[in-house]
Amino acid sequence: GGWNVSGNADGQLTFTSPYGRQVTSTRQPLRPTTRAAAARISGTTLTYDPPSPERDHPNPPQPTRPREPD
To answer: Which of 1, 21, 22, 38 has a 20 to 30 Å separation from 14 between CA atoms?
Structure first.
């Protein structure tokens, strides 16, 4: 086996080597100069909105109980 990557690309990723060593990485914010240039070119205001489980999954699946026998 090779490397394994798990996690959320908009949040935290965990890279696992073939030997089991794990390295965690998070998304880096834009440099202020890059953000300003992109906003100027696109004519918009760029904001960072971190992932939110409530927003990204407004109706998470609810645990279910087994049905009682009739």
So the answer is: 38
